[in-house]
Amino acid sequence: MKKDSKKIGIMPLGDRVLVKREDTAQKKSPAGIIIPDTAQKEKSKRGVVITVGPGKINDEGTLIPMSVRPGAEVIFSAGWDNEVKLDDSEDEYFLVHESDILAIIK
Q1: How far apart are CA 14 and CA 53, in angstroms?
Q2: What are phi and psi of 100, to 5 degrees?
Q3: What sections of the chain are H helices per DSSP?
Q4: CA 56, CA 49: separation in Å to the nearest integer?
Q5: Digits of tens for pLDDT over the chain (106 positions)?
Q6: CB atoms < 10 A from the CB of 29, how many?
Q7: May I ask the CATH class of domain 5-23+36-105?
Q8: Long-range CB contacts (< 8 A, 24+ apart) of 75-81?
Q9: For the chain, what are the domain ranges?
Q10: What are the residue ranges of helices labelled H in 3-106?
Q11: DSSP state of 87
Q12: In a 3-state reduction of DSSP, which class is residue 8?
C-alpha cells in the first residue's frame, strides 16, 4: 500500500527524500536456526521512496528537479540523525538528501 505525503503528514523540502526502510535482514539461517535481533550487525539501508521534495535550487536560481520518484526501491546512506518517527507507525523512516541515495534498484 502506497502512502502519499498528505496521509503521512510530511512534505520534504528542497532536495530531501523520505525513505521507508525495508527490513531485509534474515531472521532464520538456512539450517533453521533463529537469529536474534541483537546478533544482527547492521540494519539494512535499503528502502522505498515515499515522497520527495521539489528539488535543489542552483546558484543561478534555477530549480534542479529530483531524479528519484516515489515508489522507487533504493539503497541509501543515513545516520541516526536522519531517522524520523511517525506517530501512527512502527515503520522506520529516514529523511535524507537526494545525494545520500547511492543507487536505485531496478
Answers
A1: 5
A2: -80, -10
A3: 5-8
A4: 17
A5: 344 444 677 889 999 999 998 875 556 666 777 666 555 555 668 999 999 999 999 999 999 999 999 999 999 987 777 888 877 777 888 999 999 999 999 8
A6: 9
A7: mainly beta
A8: 75/45, 75/46, 75/101, 75/102, 75/103, 75/105, 76/19, 76/45, 76/46, 76/47, 76/100, 76/101, 76/102, 77/45, 77/101, 77/102, 78/19, 78/45
A9: 5-23+36-105
A10: 5-8
A11: T
A12: helix
What single-letter amino acid sits at 21? R
Long-range CB pairs of 87-92 (<8 Å, 24+ gap) are 89/8, 91/20, 91/21, 92/20, 92/21, 92/43
Write out the three cell numbers for 68. 528519484
| Cβ–Cβ under 8 Å, residues 45 and 78 | yes
Distance between CA atoms of residues 36 and 34, nearest Å: 6
